[in-house]
């Protein structure tokens, strides 16, 4: 039996945010895609950071208060995001989720962003598979 991998549940249809993007545009992308955060990448899709709803909320509050104009994602993104491999086991990632951990993880292969995986996707897959301890679909056995 094989275990379920991140590559099987990740989303790869959502375009990442590029450096230089105004925060108001980031908010539109987050809302349109129903995600709580997105990776920030360069032209080669190398992950440079991560921007969350909370980052945007705080940034817009501050910029509106000080009437500074639309801030850029470069100024608000977290510059050391946690990333995951497409080959990582869903169970391994699920066991590491908890308070203070990201809700969205960039999926990186050979240094390039290939998608994202969300807590919601993990939860949906676990529920769909009728997760039980020792379920062959989620076993940690090698392929």
TrEMBL record:
SMART domains: CBS (SM00116). InterPro entries: CBS_bac (IPR044729), CBS_dom (IPR000644), CBS_dom_sf (IPR046342), Diverse_CBS-Domain (IPR051257). The keyword Aminoacyl-tRNA synthetase does not apply. The keyword Transmembrane helix does not apply. This is CBS domain-containing protein. Keywords: CBS domain. Transmembrane segments: none annotated. It comes from the Bacteria. Residues 10-68, 77-133 form the CBS domain. Pfam families: CBS.
